[in-house]
Specification:
The chain is an alpha+beta fold. Helix content is 17%, strand content 46%. The protein is built from one helix and six strands. Strands 1, 2, 3, 4, 5 and 6 form a six-stranded antiparallel β-sheet that branches. A hairpin with a 4-residue loop joins strand 4 and strand 5. The termini are far apart.
């Protein structure tokens, strides 16, 4: 797959992950809320046999490395933390011809797995 096309595929995945971890439902291994994503690297593995680049793409695995700002308390105390994340199931991404970009479909059963070690 071309690097340019892969970068377009990663954009909706990055948005999906950032929205999930910035919600108040997601907590770090230390039980803290994430206030901001400072850096991120996302690596994907595409199921080549089940995918069609201009139709539907099945993302077999997603490996995410993040540098985040953890919030400790209401006064604004915080620290930075590295997170290693993955997903519990494959993602399906479809190309939207009207917007000329990829979008995630059927993501309601997909959740974030925190593989970060203490």
């Amino acid at each position: 797959m071309f690097e340019k096309e892969e970068a377009k595929i990663i954009l909706p995945i990055k948005k999906f992950i950032h929205e999930k971890i910035l919600s108040s439902d997601f907590k770090s291994k230390k039980g803290r809320v994430i206030g901001e994503v400072l850096e991120s690297a996302i690596f994907i593995e595409i199921d080549e046999d089940s995918s069609d680049i201009r139709n539907e793409i099945v993302i077999k695995t997603v490996d995410v490395r993040l540098r985040v700002l953890e919030l400790w308390d209401e006064e604004g105390s915080s620290s930075t933390e590295n997170l290693i994340l993955g997903l519990n199931r494959p993602l399906i991404i479809k190309f939207n011809n009207d917007l000329e970009e990829y979008e995630i479909i059927k993501s309601e059963k997909v959740s974030i797995l925190n593989h970060t070690q203490y």
